[in-house]
Amino acid sequence: MKVALYARVSTEEQNTGRQLEAMREYARRNGWEIYNEYIDEGISGTKESRPAFNDMLEDMRQYRFNTVVVTKLDRIGRSLKHIITLFEEFKTKGVNFVATTQNIDTTTSAGKLQLQIMAAFAEFERNIISERTKEGLKGNKKVGKRGKDKKPRKKRGGLRKPLSFINKRE
């Protein structure tokens, strides 16, 4: 099995050394060949676009490895939506995912189940957010507001400007 190791730290004061050591050891114990190590330093996991991460995705799309290894799930991303989208792409490319310290391993049936449960919770969360948004919009319409701008609506069918010239005739 060819694997890609991905390490990330959020600040430049932190260091990826421990992550890389742990992943190398995990790969060695499992007899996996390391294709490449992708390292992003000083970059938040909330950003979907990261230099080494983007390089890893490009190599994955070229079928250069078949498993992504990280120490923890939050190294690959912190946005649930981003992670779910990423895992959907992994699945279509036939790429497995392993988080060494969290026992997530999609090369096993249990690991696949764990990921499916996470995806189900993510979908549930998205649905709840959607329902709340729709309820909020309904409430805003009742008080004469719309969408994000929250500006009061103009009354339809009424006069928009006072006709002061009418009073001048009298």
**Multimeric organization:** single chain
Name of the level-1 CATH class: Alpha Beta
Please report the distance between the alpha carbons of the first and last residues: 94 Å
In what range is the share of β-strand residues?
Answer: 15-25%
The H-and-E topology, N to C, reads as: EHEHEHHEEHH
- CATH architectural arrangement: 3-Layer(aba) Sandwich
Say what the CATH topology is. Answer: Rossmann fold
Q: Report the total helices.
A: 6
The pLDDT mean sits at: 82
What kind of sheet is the major sheet?
5 strands, mixed
Question: What does this 3D model show about the protein?
Answer:
There is one protein chain. This protein has 170 residues and is α/β, with parallel strands linked by helices. Helices cover 49% and strands 16% of the residues. The longest helix has 34 residues, at 109-142. The chain has a single domain (2-124), classed as Rossmann fold (3-Layer(aba) Sandwich).
